[in-house]
Amino acid sequence: MTDVKGDRKARPSEQDDPDLYLRVVEKNSRGIVVKGAKNHITMGPYVDEHLVIPTRTLTKDEGDWAVSFAVPADADGIKIVSRIVTPRPRIALKAPYNTFGVADSVVIFDNVFVPWERVFMCGEWEFAGRLALTFAGFHRHSYCGCKPAVTDIILGATALVAEYNGVGKSSHIMDELTELMILAELVYASGIAAAAKATKTSSGIYTPEFLYSNTGRYMAGINIYHEYDVLASVAGGLPSTLPTEEDWLNPELTSDLDKYIRRKPDVSAEKLHRLYRFISDFSCSAMCGWAQYAGVHGGGSPVMEKIGIRSGYDIEGKKKIARDLAGIKD
Amino acid sequence: MTDVKGDRKARPSEQDDPDLYLRVVEKNSRGIVVKGAKNHITMGPYVDEHLVIPTRTLTKDEGDWAVSFAVPADADGIKIVSRIVTPRPRIALKAPYNTFGVADSVVIFDNVFVPWERVFMCGEWEFAGRLALTFAGFHRHSYCGCKPAVTDIILGATALVAEYNGVGKSSHIMDELTELMILAELVYASGIAAAAKATKTSSGIYTPEFLYSNTGRYMAGINIYHEYDVLASVAGGLPSTLPTEEDWLNPELTSDLDKYIRRKPDVSAEKLHRLYRFISDFSCSAMCGWAQYAGVHGGGSPVMEKIGIRSGYDIEGKKKIARDLAGIKD
Amino acid sequence: MTDVKGDRKARPSEQDDPDLYLRVVEKNSRGIVVKGAKNHITMGPYVDEHLVIPTRTLTKDEGDWAVSFAVPADADGIKIVSRIVTPRPRIALKAPYNTFGVADSVVIFDNVFVPWERVFMCGEWEFAGRLALTFAGFHRHSYCGCKPAVTDIILGATALVAEYNGVGKSSHIMDELTELMILAELVYASGIAAAAKATKTSSGIYTPEFLYSNTGRYMAGINIYHEYDVLASVAGGLPSTLPTEEDWLNPELTSDLDKYIRRKPDVSAEKLHRLYRFISDFSCSAMCGWAQYAGVHGGGSPVMEKIGIRSGYDIEGKKKIARDLAGIKD
Amino acid sequence: MTDVKGDRKARPSEQDDPDLYLRVVEKNSRGIVVKGAKNHITMGPYVDEHLVIPTRTLTKDEGDWAVSFAVPADADGIKIVSRIVTPRPRIALKAPYNTFGVADSVVIFDNVFVPWERVFMCGEWEFAGRLALTFAGFHRHSYCGCKPAVTDIILGATALVAEYNGVGKSSHIMDELTELMILAELVYASGIAAAAKATKTSSGIYTPEFLYSNTGRYMAGINIYHEYDVLASVAGGLPSTLPTEEDWLNPELTSDLDKYIRRKPDVSAEKLHRLYRFISDFSCSAMCGWAQYAGVHGGGSPVMEKIGIRSGYDIEGKKKIARDLAGIKD
After folding, report:
1. Tell me, which fold does domain A12-123 have in CATH?
2. Is this model's pTM higher than 0.90 or not?
């Protein structure tokens, strides 16, 4: 979906280079030829087909940018430039978290041909914004489910490290954990509300209520850094200074490092190594940087949700309440 | 519901004065005699009957405090000590907001007799906590509906005063208004989620999901002062320094006060007087103080919702997620 | 200082009514005649003289509004329209807090004559902004001292009510109290920094560093509502539902109200009545509304401090740091 | 300074393993022998000597842990286990930020001999806490200077990326930048206040005021994650999805990647690559994880500053203010 967008103050038709939003450069009897690039395409190298839609509202003279289609991932003229992020490799302390990474990509369309039967929109500029927002609505709704799962991990790791340190029942720790619960559940509740208030479209599928998809995604987006902060605060400095696994496996050091990582008597050194190493890999790593950025921007940044929320909000109705209570007649 | 509670560190049975939680002092063949007081009884003077329930969990030796009943509001031995809060009176600029006040009361039960047919609980200490929490759950759920309506008023007044001042479209004003929308809608969404996830009880009625009733009420409770802050910030200092209506009605001053309150050319002085006077009465008055305290504590303070939320939360399940990802076997 | 300002989107010279900023309407050999009004003049009725300065920067064609002078408080043509705020009156439970109120006023200048020897600025538009900012700098610096004193009261009341309730040592209470300490001391520290970095002016007096006067005042302004929230949260609902002193003095009720306000055994009922009544009068009253608004807007609203802070800030220097670290040559 | 500390609920003398706080295991005529480990020793591998002090207050029977000394970094029995963090390597787009890394270490003392002339404390348990706090006070004061420099980088990068994107003057961007200014300057102001209120010790040196060293360090510590959030929010998702330098240097891709990174017409593609690559390396990397943890915990976590602040605070004095205003006599 996301075009590279060039100068943020200029519309698609106002850019120096018209390709900064993906567009139709040729139409013929068999199909269309498109040019441009899509950014932030997570998992781009894994897909069978690219499904392309516009990224924003368009105006009457921007029909060339109103284009949607599906095309095989390896069609002629497509380049997928990936940036992969992998968790730190493990030697002996294998862990599920360290098994899978993620890939984002820029997908470049260099005069790619698409046959008509795979073209879904071509020139209908008046529907571009609606298509973009429909996708955004579903995407943000899905975040109301998946983001609380990230909070679950943060909450679980925070609770576990507090337990291992012997402070799991401390009042201020319980308070921090409860804040994480509330964050997760408010996002999830907003997702439930979006589903409960969904509307049936003419195609028969239901569309989640846009307002609540956005309030939930917004709440998640503005709190993700705070959630990592809670984990870091409770975990202490060790996730950033923990000796490497290589050192831990070094026979000259193993017993020392086991001795000095000890916490509560009934928690083994290996468990402590595993937990701190996990927290380090999860919250003090390149992969964490990726997750923080994705937590803010994935599915639309908080500022986009704010725009979405207020664009459809009945402010005039609220002003009327104030006027009525104040005895102001219009 | 709310007992006066005495020393907050002591249980009902540990208080110097056993009446600090309402209790049964006598049982006979016809009924029971109760003694104690209930605090914060909003609208107490208006009711036909007092419906009394315990305020907390009790232990085996606290059966005397496990009492629930209904009794006519003017039964022998009842004293209702009310504190009324009224909006500022108006002379000429009548306004619906200034029409109705509110009353809270301490209801004192000084050896009040209740016949058996109106006694619902007497000694069943093991159900006291459940009864208290059931009430709390419904009450907090209702707050998920009524508190957003308070935010509606704050949002409407903020938007209207910004419009009258000519800054209604300013970016930072729009941002403040959007935050109010999000607060209101997250609370409401949590209420919808509580309803969507309600469970049917054996009596046939539905109980809203306790978790989401609490997250919504919590969100409202921790933000109410902030919401008044937003209104005050946008309204400016005038709600606190606005000349009185008496002065405005004084022929020597009317034209001066009309002249100098002027803002955007198309908004009449009377509208401005009415709006600023409303904002003053709503947000800079004794009645506002009442509303701020009610916004924090009504239906249970945020700290009570935190306790409610974490008491039933599956923290062990979240720790298990962390252990699994970290490769920790138990 | 503060003009009534009319349409916030229009400059002094662009208002429909030129008097919406106080201005010179006549100059003659003996002096000047001024017209307009000043708003939010706290303690206006108590002064011997009004000392008037412009409220903002002006342009070349706005010399008529560049006027500063002193004039006796009761000079011909001056009307002081006051709004007084008084603490709740007490009958038997006399308390220092309830002794003094406050007055704000609109001071109207209806063609007031000022002799030349009391005119300090007349037409020097290029110094209007500097004069306004100089006043603002001193005023905001003084807030760095006086606002922490308000926090002291809130902190003391919060700590005392927690002690009387028997929860003074609770971890979450200590945490809330510590946050109040930090707020107070950061504001005060910013004031110390402004003094330590003061610059000597050619007149011989020192001017506190504008940046730190503003950061301190800003910190106070954005937190005042939060501070009242902390007090309300810890005090519970009683400040808003406490029976009146009249009821407490009623012989039919005194012993009941004494009995049921009881908390820790060693705190007398009178002390509890006095403390809750004070917290009610201080934080749940019209006078509190005044204090909240003054806490946000007195000396300049937070948004004004933000403008002051960034207007003189070396953003280009910070960009250069980023460019240097990034290896970007310009 | 920092011991490994074992079970956080147990004192040094209560640990299963007495070495979990570094201690004296032997004294003889020539000197002492120590055993234990110090954690989080930043730059440990670079020092000529280790200067060791206790990490906390001790009791009468904990004299063995009251030990302070200096010892050559490579003395017999010392093992330095380092964890190094390096910025991402660069190929062609060399940048100062990517030149230097950082190293933390566990320094293990395995029966290390220290001659008497290099022992500064041995058994004087009553001064252990004072020594630890003195160090903490200086360390936190230094943070009041160095942390604002981190904010300077974040502020500069945020302002620069906003400028390159063409939104540098947008109201909401200016607002975010101003918040960063305020954070940096309040921390710095607290440091100035600590210096201005420093007290001269008998040795002749000055000790910064502990209260303000702590309030400044606290403010920095609770906001570091928020500051990265601001940068991420304004920078957008690109720092996490930017193609690698290898891809950019690949002749098949250079022109595409230059074309599609374009923003404002007057900013070269290389500048954009450099800036986004810097922001990625600075805020979306393993090194960023290190900096976030250091920002929270370096010099003492926020919870430690809270303890420091309230431990010396005159709460009783503030309660007295409340009692006086309320008319409560003791």
Report:
1. Butyryl-CoA Dehydrogenase, subunit A; domain 2 (2.40.110)
2. yes
